[in-house]
TrEMBL record:
<dbReference type="InterPro" id="IPR036055">
    <property type="entry name" value="LDL_receptor-like_sf"/>
</dbReference>
<dbReference type="Pfam" id="PF12999">
    <property type="entry name" value="PRKCSH-like"/>
</dbReference>
<feature type="domain" description="Glucosidase II beta subunit N-terminal">
    <location>
        <begin position="8"/>
        <end position="165"/>
    </location>
</feature>
<keyword id="KW-0732">Signal</keyword>
<dbReference type="GO" id="GO:0006491">
    <property type="term" value="P:N-glycan processing"/>
</dbReference>
<dbReference type="GO" id="GO:0001889">
    <property type="term" value="P:liver development"/>
</dbReference>
<feature type="signal peptide">
    <location>
        <begin position="1"/>
        <end position="18"/>
    </location>
</feature>
<keyword id="KW-1015">Disulfide bond</keyword>
<dbReference type="GO" id="GO:0017177">
    <property type="term" value="C:glucosidase II complex"/>
</dbReference>
<protein>
    <recommendedName>
        <fullName>Glucosidase II beta subunit N-terminal domain-containing protein</fullName>
    </recommendedName>
</protein>
<dbReference type="InterPro" id="IPR039794">
    <property type="entry name" value="Gtb1-like"/>
</dbReference>
<dbReference type="InterPro" id="IPR028146">
    <property type="entry name" value="PRKCSH_N"/>
</dbReference>
Length: 181
């Protein structure tokens, strides 16, 4: 019985470390592993980790508030699964306007945003596929023109050789018919 309690206690404590920090890209997650303290990304200040996303700007670079609008220079990362991820100024977080197509910027707002990322992504993918088809057709036509040009060049080279041979033959005949001096 004690073993089960110990396992449950370890599991609960272990999962406490995985608190989600809003507004960061996966490439920045390494800076936000929950520890006792958080070092501002610019290295300027060390603060307790509880002060990350507490709606008060402690770091000059705004890195302690990626998920709130507390810092004037802060940036919020929109994951936008199914579409293009991008950053928005953190001042737009929970402002009542849906800036991220996945609605992640309005997590604590009275506005209910719809996740439109898949539809936006579908339209963009269709556009890109159309461009790829056009590019493929253009490359096919270019290759066709190159091949036709090579054939034409070879034909013209053969004609040139024939004409040069005719010119040489005529030059020889001309020399034969000239009176000797």
């Amino acid at each position: 019985m004690r073993f089960y309690i110990l396992v449950i206690a370890l599991f609960c404590c272990g999962s406490a470390d995985t608190r989600k920090v809003r507004g960061i890209s996966s490439s920045y997650k390494r800076f936000y592993r929950e520890k006792k303290s958080f070092l501002c990304i610019d290295g300027s200040k060390l603060i307790p980790f509880e002060q990350v996303n507490d709606d008060y700007c402690d770091c000059a670079d705004g890195s302690d508030e990626p998920g709130t609008s507390a810092c004037p220079r802060g940036r919020f990362y929109c994951t936008n699964l199914g579409f293009r991820p991008h950053y928005i100024p953190s001042s737009r977080v929970n402002d009542g306007i849906c800036d991220c197509c996945d609605a992640s910027d309005e997590y604590n707002s009275h506005v209910r945003c719809q996740n439109t990322c898949w539809n936006l992504g579908q339209r963009e993918r269709a556009f890109v596929e159309g461009q790829m088809r056009t590019l493929d057709e253009g490359l096919r036509l270019k290759q066709q023109l190159i091949e036709e040009g090579v054939l034409l060049w070879r034909e013209k080279q053969a004609q040139l050789r024939e004409l040069q041979q005719v010119a040489e033959d005529l030059q020889i005949k001309l020399e034969e018919h000239r009176p000797a001096k």
